[in-house]
Every structure is written in structure tokens, then in C-alpha cells.
Amino acid sequence: MSGQFEATVEVDRPVEEVFAYLADGRNDPQFSPRVLKIERIPDTATAVGTVFRSTVKDAGMKTAREFRITTLEAPVKIRWAEVTKNSVTAREGGYDLESLADGRTRVRIFNVLEGHGLGKLLVGLALVAARKDAAGFGNRIKAAAEAAISPR
Questions:
Q1: What average pLDDT score do residues 101-111 get?
Q2: What is d(CA 69, CA 144) in angstroms, rounded to the nearest whole number?
């Protein structure tokens, strides 16, 4: 079983700057409290093939995660795929960005979650939790991006 959750928010910053902020996955702990630590491999500008290796805490358990950037089209599209095979993984995820009037940016985030082994039984619960928090997650992205990027 697999399923998707998504959220859309409007960030009061220009699309190029929001794209740069989100493309650097090392910023994820600023809006995702489940991310305990994260590193970029190689430690150069994010490009297709860049891997973000993280330690996350879900349901009280710490797990190692690796995501590979699969698409990077500045300033409108970022895609990733989880390469680790935990019980529940993000088969695909991404950001779609759209420039709006007055230097704002519409950001859509999504993840397609998939269960493996015992995770096939757990993915439904993970999806319920992710969908319940989707709006909050989007708002945390908005708040973090606006705090990190100086207004013009």
C-alpha cells in the first residue's frame, strides 16, 4: 500500500530565494522537528544526485534516512526519492514553487509514502498522521523560510 500527503502555502519571499532555501536540505530541521540531524553528500551545492543523509525520530524510534535529489529545476521544481529501505519510506517527494505577485511564492510539498515488510501494515497510520499534520507542516515551512530569508 502507498499513498500521498501534500500541503500548499504562500511564502512572503521571492521564488528564487525560497527555492535556494528548500534545495538545501540541511535546512529541514528548521521546519521538521522529526529531523534530528542531516548532512549533504557531497557537501557542495545541491544538484541532481546529491544525497541528504539524516537521523529522524518517528513514533519514538530513531532511524537513518537517505534521500537522493532526482530533479532540480530552478526555481520551480525539486524532487527526491528515499534510497533507504525502512519500514515506511518516501518513494517520491518534492516541492513545486510558483512565483506570485509582490515577491511571494506558492510552495506545494508532497510525499508518496510506501510500506515495506511490516511497514505495509504501518503505512496507513503514517499517512493518517502525515495528512493530519500537512497544513501544520506547510505553515512550519512558511515560518522557517520567512525567518531565514531577509525581506526585500
A1: 97
A2: 21
